[in-house]
């Protein structure tokens, strides 16, 4: 696909351009960036000085297909992704059946191609059926198209299994993503253990459940001299552990989710089950630490942990409702409102946390930067535009968001994937 | 005197001191009704109260039932065990169905904190919380306060010790809110593994020394110890609990003369309370049961009374 | 307040109650099996005062009780303010007793209807007689008083106000106020 984007304020992880530029994409690849490009036979998108970021990459979404197509499908999830400004999403394997063999990987990739909106990359399971016992065929998974493996939703609890998985993955050159949670310590808790769990009488999940597992896996990575990526880091103490690990040269990377830097456990007072997420919403102190860690680069990237659920499931009360909230369509709004406007992240840092670093972690060599020769994936953001997140505008099949009714400043104007305009904001 | 304006009774936390006192004063009048030969008054004639118990409870349910009956209300009673409301079945759906039957109040008990609050946000009839998760059990706290006031004449400045599994106790939480609002000093006491984090922020002292707590207390609220707590490793053994935190005659040697021993029931005799203490001179456990009906009558009456305006006295 | 017509003053209230006491004793031939039950709030005070009059005449006390009829009202769902429920204090058995029910003003008769319902729940009296300080007419139920302090014809726009020292911290009097 070919496209000429006029008057872009290009933001890359290393800098924000001062002058407006034109970007020419041909056959899905950026072939020219210059102050003024004139060509006749290519469709033109004039973005009138708005910011163009490298297409946003989400390392952590749940698309529910196969198995729970009533919650989300690759098609509806793709629509939600482009609306949220994402051009590449990595979908987690806790589907039914689990993404633990090449057949399912291939079928997801095939369905994503048919939908043709964004790049959907399946993350395979680490262990068969997410049972934490037998490793999947990693070479075969990689060959089928996986860049990373994770048992997300569950933690690989058995330390020996995790050690062997890391050893094997190192050889197979595939990244392992750990959902760090000691299940015994979490003890089926439904919210963060603290004053509010005491006040509300909800089953508490101590932060220890996350930090103990992060500490263990840092030791495994250190011992094996290999890489590991931590999903949805939510605690101040976790950040401290990762900081120590990084300072010692251990190859850990980590992500944070928008809800973990936007909401505290106090919000659970409303008993809105859309606030039931895992890891749970944490204390004010933790929220501040997550923001600071994103600024300092201790946390590498931002991913949504987009987790769609039906109203029936979510109405079962706080104890029984499943964990998770949708996040693709509010990520940019939250990053702008909570991080950019609060002067925590600069625009280049946003490009870094939401694209460049994510591409780097996954080894996507042609993504994460607006540069000649890179893929024609771009996200156009209007940083000044104010908008309200309304239920009826949600593209995801599920509406389980606690942010419905919230007003944001900063909005996705257009999403371009492989030179094709896959989303243009219709709301004036 | 304060006027009652609330539509629901969800917890003690959101009641003012005056509102609590109004309930207790009203309950006093209803206790007199319960002492009559004919224990029934027509105050809620033509109204329907739905008892929606998602969790088993004989005592609270019977108490509400009797309270509603003594006020001449009709009762429908729906039980659903926690497990039947598994995935895909919405609590709201069940409640909406009951609302469609034009009931005036829904008395709800659920094993999950917050369910009565969610129902109240979506339903027209008054919602009365008969216990949700580990969060709140307002009618129990009110009947406890009623009993204390009846026996000791006041709540202000008295020392109350709440003993046992504080972590899992909605009775403890509701009593902490109510008692501290009325000026009592509350100490919680129990095994450290069953003490919720940052509980001091609710305005109580924490003690692990049961003898000290017995010595200082005017009232001891003894909580039920669930046998499951041993399986979950919160306790080394029930036997060890009984030995170190159980209230027995020997321990009460240093108790104040007018000590009240309370228990929300059902008691595990020989665990948190010895049989002789449960039946002994300090025990007001059966008074609590009697008072429970009066307090619940008062709450039903206060919630289901007023609707439109007509000149009050002289139209009579 | 100054231009509100005063229908009864302290002295006329005292005389009316004394007369009612005489009538009660005459009709019931003494105090045997007699008891007086006043309807909260002012009826209860008047009941106590009638008892004092009886004591003055006969030298004997009769049993006095207080009845709260809030829970028996037929307009419970219609009143704007939640009426405060008070205790009913009847510490004696009314079965086979001659009950003198006392209230301040007799108007539609609905209060008395509620009081009769309540009394029946306490036992089976030999008979119930009704004494009121003021009968202002406009009955909506077939109820009449056996003893009346004063009949005061009123219009529906007027309201009768009984003021008693015990409850109102003012001199005993009966006023008629006109509603705007």
Please name the CATH architecture of chain C: 3-Layer(aba) Sandwich
As residue ranges, the low-confidence spans of chain A are: none
What portion of residues of chain A is helical?
A: 25-40%
Mean pLDDT of chain C: 89
What is the CATH level 1 assignment of chain C?
Alpha Beta
Radius of gyration of chain A: 20 Å
Total DSSP E strands of chain A: 18
Question: What would the principal axes of the Cα set say about the shape of chain A?
Answer: globular
Number of domains of chain A: 1
Largest binding interface between chains: B-C, 32 and 33 residues
Residues in β-strands, percent of chain A: 15-25%
Number of domains of chain C: 1
Beta content of chain C: 25-35%
Number of helices of chain C: 4
Strand order of the largest sheet of chain C: 3-2-4-5-6
Instruction: Write down the overall mean pLDDT of chain A.
Output: 96
Instruction: Please outline the major beta sheet of chain C.
Output: 5 strands, parallel
SS-based structural class of chain C?
alpha/beta
Which geometry of chain C do the CA atoms define?
globular
Descriptive keywords:
heterotrimer; B: about 325 residues; alpha/beta; Rossmann fold; 2 domains; 5-stranded parallel sheet; 4-stranded parallel sheet; 9 strands; about 35% helix; globular; disordered C terminus; C: about 180 residues; 3-stranded antiparallel sheet; 4 helices; 8 strands; about 30% helix
Nutshell version of this structure?
The complex is a heterotrimer of chains A (428), B (316) and C (180). By secondary structure, chain A is of the alpha/beta class.
Could you explain the architecture of this structure?
The complex is a heterotrimer of chains A (428), B (316) and C (180). Chain A has a single domain, classed as Alpha-Beta Barrel (TIM Barrel), CATH 3.20.20. Helix content of chain A is 31%, strand content 21%. Chain A has 13 helices and 18 strands. Chain B is α/β, with parallel strands linked by helices and 316 residues long. Chain B folds into two domains: 17-137 and 290-315, 3-Layer(aba) Sandwich (Rossmann fold), CATH 3.40.50; 139-285, Rossmann fold, CATH 3.40.50.1370. Chain B has helices spanning 17-34, 58-70, 91-99, 115-122, 138-152, 170-181, 210-216, 228-231, 238-245, 275-278, 285-304; strands spanning 48-53, 74-79, 105-110, 126-132, 159-163, 185-189, 205-207, 219-222, 260-262. In chain B, helix 2 (58-70) crosses helix 11 (285-304) and helix 3 (91-99) packs across helix 4. The longest helix of chain B is centred in the last third of the chain and has 20 residues, at 285-304. In chain B, 51% of the residues are buried. Chain C has 180 residues and is α/β, with parallel strands linked by helices. Chain C has one domain (10-155): Rossmann fold. Chain C has a five-stranded parallel beta sheet. In chain C, strands 1-8-7 form a three-stranded antiparallel beta sheet. In chain C, helix 1 (10-28) packs across helix 2. Chain C starts with 5 loop residues before the first strand and ends with a strand. At the A-B interface, helix 6 and helix 11 of A face helix 3 and helix 4 of B.
